[in-house]
Amino acid sequence: MDAPILDLLIEGAVVLTADPSAPVLNPGRIGVTGNRITHLGPAEGAAPPAREVIDARGHVAIPGLMNVHTHAILSMVRGVAEDMGFAPAYTPGVPHGHDVTEAEAVAMARLGALEALKFGSTLINDSFVHQELTLPAMADLGIRAWGCGRIHDVDFSRVHLKEWTYSDAIGAWTLDLAESLYETCHGKADGRIGVHLAAHAPDTCSRRQLERVRDLRDRTGLRTATHLCQSRIEVETVRERDGMSPPELLDEVGLLDDRLLSAHCIFVTDSDIERIGRAGMHVAHIPKGNATGATIAPTDRLRAAGARLTLATDNMHADMVEVMRWGLNMGRIQRGAISDDWQPETVFAMATMGGARAMGLEHELGSLTEGKKADIVLLDYRRPHLVPLIDPLGNLVHTAQGRDVRHVVVDGRIVLRDGRSTLANEDEILRDAQRAAEALWSRARAELARMKGERR
Prior knowledge:
Layout: E1 8-16, E2 24-33, E3 36-42, E4 53-55, E5 59-63, E6 65-70, H1 102-118, E7 121-128, H2 131-139, E8 144-149, H3 156-159, H4 168-185, E9 193-195, E10 197-198, H5 207-220, E11 224-228, H6 232-242, H7 246-253, E12 260-264, H8 270-279, E13 282-285, H9 287-292, H10 299-305, E14 308-311, H11 320-335, H12 344-351, H13 353-358, E15 376-380, H14 392-398, E16 405-410, E17 413-417, E18 420-421, H15 426-455
Parallel strand pairs: 1-4, 1-5, 6-7, 7-8, 8-9, 10-11, 11-12, 12-13, 13-14
Antiparallel strand pairs: 1-2, 2-3, 5-15, 15-16, 16-17, 17-18
Helix pairs in contact: 1-2, 1-15, 4-5, 8-10, 11-12, 12-14
C-alpha cells in the first residue's frame, strides 16, 4: 500500500519538540496532514511523499511560542512609555485605551499580530479595547488570537489622574461586552479565535465586579486572566479599599485557582506567594517589561511554592525568544547562581508547554507531538551568532533573536514564508499603524497641554 501523501513535509531541521519523551531530533522530519502533525521522527531513509516540502537543513524547528499576556494595541506607546514610569493606563500624557477609535484599534492590532508571527509566536493572549474587531483582524493574519476587552468598573478616564471611581454602569457594560465577545467570536476562524475573561486588575475592579466575573466564568466555563500585584499603587489601593492584599481578595471571591492566569506578581508578600502557590495559579512572567520599570517578580520563590510559570511580553515588543533569555538571566540574578533547575530548558518549557497549560490547550498545542495541531516555527541557524551549533537549545535561548524566524506554520498553513506574511500586505499594515499612532499621540499631547493650561 502506498504511503499517504502529506500536505507538508519539513525535512532536515534540528527539531526541539518541547516534549520530554523525545526532546531533540537531529536531524528530524515533521509531516503535516490538514492541521495536525501526523509524522515526527528522524530524517532517515526515504522521505514520505508530500504536496509541499520545506528543505529545513540549517534550521531549528520549535513549537509555536505562546505569548500568554500582551496588549497588541499598546505598541502605540512603543519607545516612549518605557521611560515614563508605570503602565500607560496609569500615566498622564500618553494615549489611553478609551482614546482609541475602532479603526485605530484594528490598525495597531494587525501590527501586533504581524510582529508576533515574525518573532515566532503562534498564539497571543491579548486584552484591550474593541476586541470584537481586533481579534478577527489579527486572526486574518493566521495567528491564534485569544483575548477579551478590559473588564473593570473603574472609570479609566480618571485613573491616570490617580482617581479610582467605580461605577455599576461601567462594570455591567464591560461584562456585557465580554459575554457578547464569547457568544460571537469564541471558536471562530477554525478555532483560532478564543476568549478568556480579562478582569483588568484588583484595583480597577471592585470586589462586587470580581464576583460578577467569577459568576460569568462559572456560567461559561471560560478561563480568567488579570494583572496581579503589578504595582505598589494596586497593592495600596486594594489594601485601603478591602483591608487585604490583592491575592487575598481574589482568593476570597473565588478566582484564585488553577484556571487563573495572572501577569506580573511583583509586589507579593511571603503569605501572598504561599497562597498563589497553593492555588496552583499560572503566572505570566514578564521579565524584560518589568525590568524596564526596575522591577522583577520573585520567580524562584513563586515556583517553589507551586505557582505555574509562563512567559509573556506584555507591551512594547513581541519577541518571545528574547524574553526567554531575560527570564533565564533574571532568574539567575535573583538566585545568585547557575543551578540545574534554572536552565534553557526551563524557560523554553515556560514559553511552550507552560503557556499551553495556562490557556487550557496543552492537549492540542505547546509541543511538536504527533496528533497535536501543526503550529511550527523554523529559525535560520545559518548565521554568525548561531554558529557553531553544539547545543541548539542553548543557542536558541542565549543568542537567538525573534528576527531569526524564517517560516511559521499555524494550524498546518504556512503563514510566514521566508520572513514575510503570506496572508497580508506588510507595507500596508506598517503604514496604517504609523498613521494611527501619530493621530493618537497628537490627541494625547493636545489633552496634556489642555490639562497643564487649566492648572495655571
